[in-house]
Design goal:
62% strand; mainly beta; two-stranded antiparallel sheet; single chain; 71 residues
Length: 71
Amino acid sequence: NFDYLVAFKIYNRWGDMVFDSDKSSLKKWNGTINGIKQTPDNYIVVGQVKLYQNSNVVQTVPFKTNLLLVR
């Protein structure tokens, strides 16, 4: 059994999307927006995880969590 992160998006407190893993070759957010370091703040992460059993996808589960950016 293992899980696989399919995709995720990060939104700032005003609901603006600041990162989309589908549109980035980085697959991780480095805490910048358009190359500008962001100040510490709360962000929302929304994504999907595929759950496997015996190498077969059992289901795709959405998730939502908070992210605190610290410097």
